[in-house]
């Protein structure tokens, strides 16, 4: 059937088929099955299939570039964490230095004014709230 | 449409020319999609499986060793992808009725009973009822027209095993078709 038999095997097979009704029937049915499958439709890829495959590739490549937390080998992930720690340390250290310089330059009072709640004024005199308070006070005095 | 030789397409791809891969997709898309339609049947699932096949091929192509032919390599990815899709599908249980119920029938074989669309439908349905290994072998043989040796390469098995699987698949298909539509 699939040309899978040698000439000798084929000769023996043909002899057997002639004398065996059930094998003959099976052979005929198998041939009919093959004809049936041969007449079934072959499905071509839908239009635009290749374009969609390539677009999917681009998407995956894009997400790989942007995806900081996507799949990475362990050493790359470790490098990412180390880099983040270095950036944070440099930020904190330089922030502290700037603060120290500012303290030396302007003095403790300025820092206190900046950070202390004791010196906090809810309505400084030149704010709208301050002007409103001044007006109310002068009205009350009158 | 004519396509370049497979080895040329691979070389172009490895050298960073994406058009090598694009040509490869265009060259094999019909064969891969047809295989998926008979392995899975549902058009959307088949299309997804065919796309996944090429995405997997893209990732693995750099490691492809030309000790096997490119198209049997792609067919192997496609067959495995389709089997994965079917395993994941909840519909698998409904489609995979036990073959014990498909007892041999005395009805005549329905070889001249259909219009083309009905034949396709009946064949697709019958193939879904085959066990995985028989399904892949018969689709590659009868619908993709691969030789026993090529199928053995795709399925990583011997040509003797392929012959046996195809023979069993034909027998089961005959019974299923006679029972369902004869």
What does this structure look like?
The complex is a heterodimer of chains A (142) and B (182). Chain A has helices spanning 7-19, 21-39, 49-66, 74-106, 108-115, 128-141. Chain A is mainly alpha-helical. The longest helix of chain A is centred in the middle third of the chain and has 33 residues, at 74-106. Chain A is rod-shaped. The N and C termini of chain A lie far apart (120 Å). Chain B is mostly helical and 182 residues long. In chain B, 70% of the residues lie in helices and 0% in strands. Chain B has nine helices and no strands. The termini of chain B are far apart. Chain A binds chain B through residues 2, 4, 28-30, 32-46, 49-50, 52-54, 56-57, 60, and chain B through 18, 21-22, 25-26, 29-30, 32-34, 37, 46-47, 50-51, 54-55, 58, 109-111, 114, 116-117, 119-120, 122-124, 141-143, 148, 163, 166, 170, 173-174, 177.
Please describe the topology of this protein.
The complex is a heterodimer of chains A (142) and B (182).
Chain A: H1 7-19, H2 21-39, H3 49-66, H4 74-106, H5 108-115, H6 128-141
Chain B: H1 6-14, H2 18-39, H3 43-60, H4 70-88, H5 92-95, H6 116-128, H7 132-143, H8 148-155, H9 159-181
Please give the share of residues in helix of chain A. over 70%
**H-E order of chain A:** HHHHHH
**Which overall shape of chain B is indicated by the principal axes computed on the Cα atoms?**
elongated
Rg of chain A (CA only): 44 Å
pLDDT < 50 runs, ≥5 residues of chain A: 65-71
**Rounded radius of gyration of chain B (Å):** 18 Å
Main sheet overview of chain B: none
| Backbone structural class of chain B | mainly alpha
- Could you tell me the mean pLDDT of chain A? 79
Strand content of chain B: under 5%
The secondary-structure element order of chain B is HHHHHHHHH
Q: What global shape of chain A is seen? A: rod-shaped
Could you list some keywords that capture this structure?
A: 142 residues; mainly alpha; 6 helices; B: 182 residues; elongated
């Amino acid at each position: 059937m699939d040309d899978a038999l040698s000439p000798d095997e084929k000769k023996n097979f043909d002899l057997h088929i002639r004398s065996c009704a059930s094998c003959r029937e099976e052979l005929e049915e198998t041939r009919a099955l093959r004809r049936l499958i041969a007449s079934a439709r072959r499905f071509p890829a839908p239009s635009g299939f290749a374009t969609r495959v390539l677009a999917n590739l681009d998407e995956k490549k894009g997400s790989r570039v942007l995806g900081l937390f996507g799949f990475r080998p362990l050493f790359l992930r470790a490098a990412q964490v180390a880099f983040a720690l270095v950036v944070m340390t440099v930020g904190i250290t330089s922030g502290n230095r700037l603060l120290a310089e500012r303290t030396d330059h302007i003095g403790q009072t300025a820092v206190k004014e900046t950070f202390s709640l004791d010196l906090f004024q809810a309505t400084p005199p030149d704010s709208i709230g301050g002007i409103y308070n001044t007006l109310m006070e002068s009205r009350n005095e009158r | 449409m004519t396509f370049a030789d497979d080895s040329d397409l691979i070389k172009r791809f490895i050298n960073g020319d994406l058009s090598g891969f694009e040509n490869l997709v265009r060259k094999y898309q019909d064969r891969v999609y047809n295989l998926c339609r008979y392995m899975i049947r549902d058009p959307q699932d088949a299309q997804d499986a065919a796309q996944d096949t090429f995405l997997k091929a893209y990732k693995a192509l750099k490691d492809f060793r030309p000790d096997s032919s490119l198209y049997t390599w792609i067919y192997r990815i496609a067959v495995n992808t389709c089997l994965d899709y079917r395993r994941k599908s909840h519909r698998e249980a409904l489609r995979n009725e036990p073959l014990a119920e498909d007892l041999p029938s005395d009805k005549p074989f329905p070889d001249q009973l259909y219009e083309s669309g009905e034949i396709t439908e009946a064949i697709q349905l019958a193939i879904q009822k085959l066990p995985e290994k028989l399904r892949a072998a018969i689709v590659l043989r009868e619908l993709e027209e691969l030789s026993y040796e090529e199928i053995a390469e795709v399925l990583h098995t011997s040509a003797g095993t392929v012959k046996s699987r195809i023979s069993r698949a034909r027998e089961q298909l005959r019974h299923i078709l006679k029972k369902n539509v004869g």
